[in-house]
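[step 3/7] fold_predict: job queued, chain A
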Amino acid sequence: MIIKILSIQVPQFWEAIKYTVRAVEEIEPANLQVVYVELLHALLNDKAQCFVSFDKDRTLKGLIITRIAVDKVTGVKFIQLESLFAWDKITDEDYKEAYDLILLFAKKNNCKYITGKSSNPRVLEIVTRLGFKEKCKVFEVRL
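[step 4/7] structure written:
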């Protein structure tokens, strides 16, 4: 079962949310606290969303953080998939259920597309099967 948690439920999932961000995002340890504060503020004010997956025993299996964003050039609204993490094996059916829920949420909010980035091969494989196309490759050099 996958649900979008309400902003008032964020404190209940906060430790799992912080764990997901720490595990998935490449954030310098010195910047983690600032990232957490900004994300908490966004989640509590419905500027970011958290979708969670449970197994049949209501144990947390996975978590996805999203944000509704607006393209600065075109003014088009879209959903940005930010962090995706699984504590337990997520099946293709679970990913499809999550995709369908996020797609419904995106359409309800007049978003025109869903985008995201990941270096995880499993995530890239799943989103490709769901119909996502590679738009670009991101590269960087740390100084």
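[step 5/7] annotate
The chain has a mean pLDDT of 92.
The domain at 2-129 is CATH 3.40.630.30 (Aminopeptidase).
exit 0
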